[in-house]
């Protein structure tokens, strides 16, 4: 791929790549870094690459893979950030301490009831939309175990929802 083809093919996909990275990583700085790293990596290899048939799909798959690698390599820091999302403040100051809609607060409350293992797997599945194999890679669990954890976590949430009504 020539320099011009790269500029016409990859660079226009920056916003879409950022949106994909943000959906997976849930952090604007990490998403921006991931896109920059991916574009830089593609630029270094562009001379030996063929022009992709579908630039959007190629760029989205490339950034998705990079984000999964980033989660895998930084899983401890990523999971600590996920755990901090589910800490609901105690006391009468809860409304001033978090500015979430009632629905978001309810979802966080449901997920906070789960143990750490279930919470991680469900968060990666629901919010990051990773497949069981990708969750397995990110968490170190086997794909079969991820499937069981997802099933049990969903069952716990259903029971919690039944008891709330």
Question: How does this model look, in words?
Answer:
The protein is mostly helical and 165 residues long. Helix content is 75%, strand content 0%.
> In which range does the helix fraction lie?
over 70%
Beta strands, count: 0
Q: What is the string of SSEs from the N terminus onward?
A: HHHHHHHHHH
The total count of helices amounts to: 10
Overall mean confidence score, pLDDT: 80
Poorly predicted sequence stretches spanning 5 or more consecutive residues: 91-100
* Outline: elongated
> Strand percentage, roughly?
under 5%
Q: How widely separated are the two ends?
A: 59 Å
Q: Measured on Cα atoms, how large is the radius of gyration?
A: 19 Å
Could you say which structural class the secondary elements and strand pairing correspond to?
mainly alpha
Instruction: Sketch the major β-sheet.
Output: none
Features:
165 residues
Secondary structure elements and pairings:
Elements: H1 3-9, H2 14-25, H3 28-45, H4 55-73, H5 75-85, H6 94-97, H7 102-112, H8 116-126, H9 132-139, H10 143-164
Helix pairs in contact: 2-3, 2-4, 3-4, 4-9, 8-10, 9-10
Gist?
The chain has 165 residues and is an all-alpha fold. The protein is built from ten helices and no strands. α2 (14-25) crosses α3, α2 runs parallel beside α4 (55-73) and α9 packs across α10.
């Amino acid at each position: 791929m020539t320099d011009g083809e790269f500029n016409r093919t990859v660079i226009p996909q920056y916003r879409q790549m950022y949106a994909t990275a943000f959906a997976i990583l849930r952090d604007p700085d990490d998403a921006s870094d991931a896109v920059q790293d991916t574009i830089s990596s593609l630029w270094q290899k562009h001379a030996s690459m063929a022009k992709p048939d579908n630039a959007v799909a190629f760029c989205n798959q490339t950034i998705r893979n990079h984000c999964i690698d980033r989660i895998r390599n930084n899983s401890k820091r990523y999971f600590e950030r996920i755990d901090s999302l589910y800490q609901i403040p105690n006391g009468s100051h809860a409304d001033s301490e978090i500015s979430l809609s009632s629905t978001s607060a309810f979802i966080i409350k449901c997920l906070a009831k789960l143990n750490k293992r279930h919470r991680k797997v469900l968060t990666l599945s629901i919010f990051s939309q990773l497949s069981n194999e990708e969750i397995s890679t990110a968490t170190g669990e086997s794909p079969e175990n991820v499937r069981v954890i997802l099933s049990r976590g969903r069952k716990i949430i259903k029971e919690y929802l039944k008891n709330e009504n």
